[in-house]
Design goal:
With 265 residues, the chain is an alpha+beta fold. It contains 2 helices and 14 strands. The strands form 4 sheets. Strands 1, 2, 3, 4 and 5 form a 5-stranded antiparallel beta sheet that branches. It has a 5-stranded mixed barrel with strand order 9-10-12-13-14.
C-alpha cells in the first residue's frame, strides 16, 4: 500500500486566507477606483456647465434693456422675450451687452442683439415683443366730411398702440376744433390724415408779418396768398410788391425767419 502524504492543514489554511484577502482587496480597490472616476466625471460635467452661458441670463438682459428703452412710452408697457435656442452652446460671458440692430426699436415685434466681448467673443439675435397699452380716440358716431369735432363726437378706446396704424390720437386737445377731412363711420380710429386742422390764415386775409433776424425784429403788413393751418408755410405779398414766405401763426401772424436784414424793407 502506498501512502500519499497530505499538506499540513496549517499550510492549506494560509493559502485559502491569502486568496480570500486578495479577492477582498481587489473588490475594495475597484470600488475606490469607481468612486474616484465618478467624482472626476461629476467635476468635469460641473466645470463644463459652469463655463457655458446661462440662456436665462440672456432673456433677463433683454427684458431689462427693453424696459429702459420703453421709458416714456404713452401707456402701460408689456415685454415678452422669445427663449434662445436651447441648442446654443455659448461660452460664459463676464458682461452681457444688449443693443438694437438697425431698423429695430422698442415697439411691437422687434429684435435685440446680445453680444459678449470677454472672455469669449460672440453675438446672437433674439426676437421679442413690446406692447404699449393706452387709450386712443375713435369716432363716437358717424362724422360727415367738413364737420368740426367736439367732445361729443369722439371717445376713448383702450388697446395695444403697437398694433394700430401710425398717426393715431391719444389726446383730446389735438382734435377739438379740427374738421373731418373725409366722412367717417362710428368706431373709426382717428388718424392724422382723417383730421384737418383749422386754418389760421385765409387767402386774401390781411396779416401781420413778423420778420425775425439776428438781433432784430421787424413788423409790417401784407396780404396772404393762400390758406394755412398753424405752423404751415404761407406766402405773403407785402406793400412794396415783394413776396415773402413764413410760418402761419394764430391771430393772423406770419413769422418770417431771416439770417440777415429783411429784403422787403
Amino acid at each position: 500500500m502506498i501512502i500519499i502524504p497530505l499538506k499540513p492543514p496549517l499550510i492549506q489554511d494560509q493559502i485559502g486566507l491569502r486568496v480570500t484577502c486578495s479577492n477582498s482587496l481587489n473588490r475594495k480597490l475597484k470600488s475606490v477606483l469607481f468612486i474616484l472616476a465618478l467624482a472626476c466625471f461629476c467635476h468635469s460635467v460641473s466645470a463644463e456647465t459652469e463655463s457655458r452661458q446661462d440662456l436665462n441670463q440672456i432673456q433677463l438682459k433683454i427684458k431689462d434693456f427693453l424696459r429702459i428703452e420703453s421709458t416714456g412710452s404713452p401707456g402701460t408697457v408689456g415685454i415678452s422675450v422669445s427663449p434662445p435656442d436651447p441648442r446654443l452652446n455659448l461660452p460664459a460671458c463676464n458682461s452681457l451687452e444688449a443693443a438694437f440692430p438697425p431698423g429695430s426699436r422698442a415697439w411691437g415685434k422687434t429684435t435685440v442683439e446680445v453680444r459678449c466681448s470677454s472672455p469669449a467673443i460672440w453675438r446672437i439675435f433674439v426676437e421679442a415683443r413690446v406692447s404699449i397699452t393706452a387709450a386712443y380716440l375713435v369716432a363716437a358716431l358717424p362724422l360727415a366730411q367738413g364737420h368740426e369735432i367736439t367732445e361729443n363726437d369722439v371717445q376713448f378706446q383702450k388697446g395695444d398702440l403697437t398694433t394700430l396704424p401710425p398717426g393715431i390720437y391719444t389726446s383730446l386737445t389735438h382734435v377739438l376744433g379740427h374738421t373731418v377731412a373725409l366722412s367717417l363711420p362710428a368706431g373709426s380710429i382717428l388718424r392724422q390724415e382723417m383730421i384737418k386742422a383749422p386754418n389760421v390764415i385765409q387767402r386774401g386775409q390781411s396779416v401781420n408779418v413778423l420778420s425775425i433776424g439776428k438781433n432784430f425784429e421787424i413788423g409790417y403788413e401784407g396780404i396772404a396768398l393762400g390758406d394755412a393751418v398753424e405752423n404751415q408755410m404761407v406766402q405773403v405779398k407785402v406793400s412794396n410788391g415783394r413776396i415773402v414766405q413764413g410760418f402761419a401763426r394764430k391771430g393772423g401772424v406770419v413769422e418770417v425767419r431771416n439770417r440777415g436784414i429783411d429784403s422787403a424793407h
